[in-house]
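Researcher: I'd like a candidate sequence for this fold, 434 residues long. If you have to choose between options at a position, lean toward the conservative one.
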């Protein structure tokens, strides 16, 4: 339950760890402040004010003391109460109950109700600086004008400003620092993800806290070890394949000499197949070599490919000049393999090259039988073919798509097989970061 509520990213978790105590402290401080400082002082001030008003009202309404009213009035005026007026033949306006959120009006209302035994009216909003309180005695009205600053504790605003603005400021600063601390984690996660997919990842510079640095250094060591291992293995296998070429050629020659009555035809075709497999494997391992990365024009590359096929069943659509950063001969091999497949398994193929703000998209659409959904992952594996018996005859080995995937990955791109949206057939989409 708690797990579901907690934020998922480390950044937001850390933020919560920082924010939660600060926020709680703020809430506690605000409650304590409001209760002890704001409410209590303002209540005290309101009580005193209404007490004084009550004295004046009593002096005025009692016939015995009425004649001394002016004397008493002079004593009270310009203290808590600024001005006192006696209004003859006035009617009290009707009074609205204070709103629940208007704490000050509520305090005043409560004190007036408790202490004054005559109809009263007050207004705290009409004037910016004064509060107007009126009490009705028979046909006269006593009006009291009170300066707001004398009866209101105004430190609330200052207090809230002082407590919220610095805490927001400090929070922003800590968010900035926090982001810098999280950065190495994110780049490490990205690198690990890409490396796992077999894509090329530039070396990570250790940064951040000691522990994170250590993880990055160890990750880099591990990466180098794995890469060394792969290249050693590839080098060994291609060495063997290479060495096999000479005995195979010799075998072929000997078969030609001995193959009088076509008795060795089967052996011959097996040898040819082996030769083809070796050639393809050598191709595959050379696709893993790291050549020079250059910037080249994709539309030029398309023209080169078009010339090779010289076939009006294959159409090319590349409207603009698109520059791509990569190893040109590998990208070319990649496209050859895909177009070869379309030529072999379908008939017609459309090659469409597009560029949007962050990616270059190359798609090859054909009208062949397509690749069923459950085979789409498997066809990428080396030496995997869907229909083995049929395809071996036309010299397929099953390395084409593995080579494509390898090349695409090493360029930081992705490959996707899907149904051709035009209906029948396969659509292969390559996406490269632009
Ligand atoms: N355009 C396509 N239409 C239908 N099936 C395809 C298409 N492309 C590939 N496949 C299927 O995926 C399998 C693997 O393709 P891949 O290119 O890796 O090997 P291959 O074409 O059989 O041999 P190679 O390319 O090494 O000569 C193929 O055997 C084929 O069954
Ligand atoms: Mg192929």
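Model: Candidate sequence:
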């Amino acid at each position: 339950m708690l797990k579901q509520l907690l934020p998922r990213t480390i950044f937001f978790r850390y933020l919560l760890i920082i924010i939660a105590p600060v926020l709680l402290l703020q809430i506690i401080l605000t409650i304590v402040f409001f209760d002890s400082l704001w409410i209590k002082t303002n209540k005290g001030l309101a009580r005193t004010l209404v007490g004084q008003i009550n004295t004046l009202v009593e002096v005025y309404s009692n016939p015995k003391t009425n004649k001394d009213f002016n004397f008493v009035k002079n004593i009270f005026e310009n203290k808590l109460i600024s001005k006192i007026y006696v209004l003859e033949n006035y009617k009290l306006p009707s009074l609205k109950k204070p709103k629940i959120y208007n704490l000050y009006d509520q305090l005043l209302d409560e004190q007036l109700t408790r202490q004054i035994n005559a109809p009263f009216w007050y207004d705290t909003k009409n004037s910016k600086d004064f509060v107007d309180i009126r009490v009705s005695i028979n046909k006269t009205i006593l009006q009291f004008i009170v300066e707001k600053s004398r009866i209101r504790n105004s430190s609330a605003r200052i207090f809230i400003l002082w407590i919220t603005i610095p805490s927001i400021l400090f929070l922003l600063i800590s968010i900035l620092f926090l982001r810098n601390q999280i950065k190495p984690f994110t780049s490490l996660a990205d690198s690990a993800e890409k490396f796992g997919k077999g894509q090329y990842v530039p070396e990570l510079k250790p940064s951040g806290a000691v522990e994170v640095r250590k993880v990055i250094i160890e990750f880099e060591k591990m990466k180098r070890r794995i890469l060394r291992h792969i290249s050693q293995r590839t080098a060994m296998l291609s060495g063997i394949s290479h060495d096999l070429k000479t005995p195979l050629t010799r075998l072929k020659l000997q078969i030609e000499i001995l193959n009088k009555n076509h008795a060795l035809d089967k052996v011959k075709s097996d040898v040819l197949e082996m030769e083809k497999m070796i050639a393809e494997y050598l191709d595959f391992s050379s696709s893993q070599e790291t050549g020079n990365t250059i910037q080249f024009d994709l539309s030029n590359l398309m023209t080169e490919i078009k010339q090779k096929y010289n076939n009006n069943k294959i159409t090319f659509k590349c409207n603009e000049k698109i520059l791509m950063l990569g190893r040109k001969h590998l990208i070319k091999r990649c496209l050859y393999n895909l177009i070869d497949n379309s030529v072999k398994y379908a008939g017609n193929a459309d090659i469409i090259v597009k560029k949007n703000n962050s990616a270059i998209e190359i798609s090859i659409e054909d009208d062949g039988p397509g690749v069923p959904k459950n085979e789409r992952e498997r066809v990428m594996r080396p030496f995997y073919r869907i229909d083995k018996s049929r395809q071996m005859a036309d010299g397929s080995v099953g390395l084409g798509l593995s080579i494509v995937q390898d090349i695409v990955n090493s360029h930081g791109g992705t490959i996707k097989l899907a149904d051709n949206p035009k209906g029948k057939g396969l659509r292969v989409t390559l996406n490269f970061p632009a």
